[in-house]
Amino acid sequence: MRLPSLVARHRESLAAWTMVAPALVVTLIFALYPVLDSFWLSLHHIFVGIPSLGRSFIGLENYFNLLRDPVAHQALFITLAFVALSTVLEVACGLGIALVIHERFRGRDFVRAAILIPWAIPTVVASQLWRYIFNDQYGVANLLLFNDRVAAYIPWLAYPIVAFGIIVLADVWKTSCFAALLILAGLQVISDDLYDAAKVDGAGAWQRFWHITLPLLKPALLLALLFRTMDAFRVFDLVFVMTQGGPGDATQVLQFYGYQTLFTEGRLGYGSAISVAVFLMILGLSLIYLRAIGSSLLERRRA
Amino acid sequence: MNRRLLLALGIVGTVGLSVGPFFWFLLTSFKSQAEIEAVPPTWWPSGGLSFYRSVLFDHHLFDYVANSIVVAGSTTLLALLIAIPAAYALARLAIPGKQGILAVLLCVSMFPQMAIAGPVWRLLDGIGGLNHRWGVVLPYVALTLPLAIWILASFFKELPFELEDAARVDGCGPWGTLLRITLPLAAPGIFTAAILILIYAWNEFFFALLILTQPEQQTLPVGIALFQGEFTMPWGELAAASVVATLPLIVVVLLCQRWIVSGLSAGAVKG
Questions:
Q1: B98 and B151 co-located in one domain
Q2: Do B232 and B159 have their domain in common?
Q3: What distance in Å separates the CA atoms of residue A228 and residue A225, rounded to the nearest whole number?
Q4: Percent of chain B with pLDDT over 90
Q5: Residue B69, Cβ neighbours under 10 Å: how many?
Q6: Within 13 Å, how many C-alpha atoms sit on residue A16's CB side?
Q7: Interface of B with A in 69-108 (CB under 8 A)
Q8: Does residue A64 fall inside a structural domain?
Q9: Which residues contact B84 (CB under 8 A, 6 or more apart)?
Q10: For residue A23, pLDDT beyond 50
Q11: Which of the pair, B35 or B207, is modelled with greater confidence?
Q12: Which domain holds residue B245?
C-alpha cells in the first residue's frame, strides 16, 4: 500500500506542514529573528533607558571599537583558555568514566545514576557549592589540607589564576559525565569480536585500547568535544555566582562581559556587537568540528 | 586480578568524586550556625533543621519552589505539545526541505544565550512578558524544541512501519495515526524528552535572571544565585535551599537513569 493517490498525498503533505508549523513559528520568533535583530542592533548606537538619545545608525563602528577594546581582548583570551582547558579535561575524564561504566559489574545502574548527579544539579547550585568548598574560613578544601592549622588557610578565590582554575574544576566536575555518556554510546557499538581476535593474536590490554578502542572511538570523542566546546563557550552561571568576572578580570568571559554591557550598562548596540561576535565564533567552530566528524564517519564506512 | 582492582578503584573514584562535593553541602545544611563558623569547621552536624526552618519561613523558599514548578511544568507540556507532531512529521511524512529544517534546529540548539538575549528581552518587553513566569517559558520552549524534536524523531524512526500502514489502509489520516497508533508506542521516547526538558527548565539561570527581576516571580536558580545575608554569607541557609532545589532532580535521576542515558546519547550515535 505504498502508492497513495494524489489526493491522499496532498492531504499528507498538508498535514505534515501543520504538524511542523508551530515548531517553526516558535523557533523563528524566539531564536532566528533575535539573532538577526542582534546583528541589526549592533549597527546602531543605542542605550536602554535613555530613549531620548534615539538610535543612530553607525555601521560597523561598534565592531571597530570591539577590536580595540582591551576588556574584550581579555574576555576573549580567558574564554578561549577556559574552553580549551575544560573541554580537553572533560573529554579525558569522560573517557575514564565511560570505560568504568561500560564494564559489567554488580550495581552498575546505581553507579550510572550516581555519576549523573553532577549533571542534574543546577549550575547555580554547583557554583555556590564550589564557592563554599573553597571558602577561606569555612571551606572543606582548607579543612582537608590544613585541618586545625588555621593560620595556613588559603583564600583560594582571591588569587586570579586559582580562581580561574576553580571555575574550570567546577565545570569539569559538572559536565564530564555528559561527555562520558556520549563516549559510552560510542563504546557500546564496538564489537566484542574485535577484542577477542586481538586477544588471540596476543595483544595486551594496553595495545587493545590503543589500537582498537581509541581509533573506533574517534567519532564519539569528536562529538563529545563538539558539544562540550559549544557549551563551554557559553559559560556564564559559574562566573556570575563565583567570581563576577574577578579578581581583577581573571575570570571575565565573553558571555559575562556581554551581559554586563547589555543589561548592567544598557549599551544595547555595543552589547549586541559582542553577542554577534560570540555567535560567529561558535558558528565557525562548529563548522570545523562538523567537517572533522563528517569525514571520520566516512572513513569508518569505507573501512 | 589487576584489572578487577583497577575497576574497583575506578568505581569508587568516580562515585566518590561525583557525590562527595554535594554531600558536603548536605552535611552543612543540617549544621548549626556555630558548627559552620567553628574554627576549624566541624565535619559532622549534630543534626538540626534550623536552616531549613529559616529558609522556608524567613526566606519564602516555597514561593521559589512554586515558581520553578510552574515554569518547568509549563515549559515541558508546551514543548512536548509542539515537538511531538513536528518530530512525527519529520520522521515519517514526506516534507520538502526536511534536512534543512533538521539542520536549522541543530544550529539553534548551539546558539549562545547572549546572541539572542537582547532582542528576546525587547520582544518580551513589547508584549508585556517581563516579570511574568510565562515570559520565561516562551524562550525556554524555543530553546528546548531542537533537543526534544531530535530525540523524538529518532524514537519515531525506530518504530515499525506496519502498524501505521495498517491504520492508513483503514482510513486513518496522518493526525489520527499519530494520536492513536504512534503516540502510545513512543511513550518511552516522550518520557525521555520530558525529563530532559524538565531538568533544563528547572536549572536554567541566564534568561530567568534577565526576565524575572521581582523576587515574587523568580525561580530557584535565581533565588539561590542572588541569595545574600545582611552581614555575612548565609551558607547554612544556602545549603538548605540548594538541597531543596536539587533533591527532586536526584530522585528523577535515580528513578529514570536508563531513559536519561538513552536520551542524551540518542541523537549522538544515530545522527
A1: yes
A2: yes
A3: 5
A4: 47
A5: 14
A6: 17
A7: 82-83, 85-86, 88-90, 93-96, 101, 104-105, 107-108
A8: no
A9: B152, B178, B183, B190
A10: yes
A11: B207
A12: 50-270
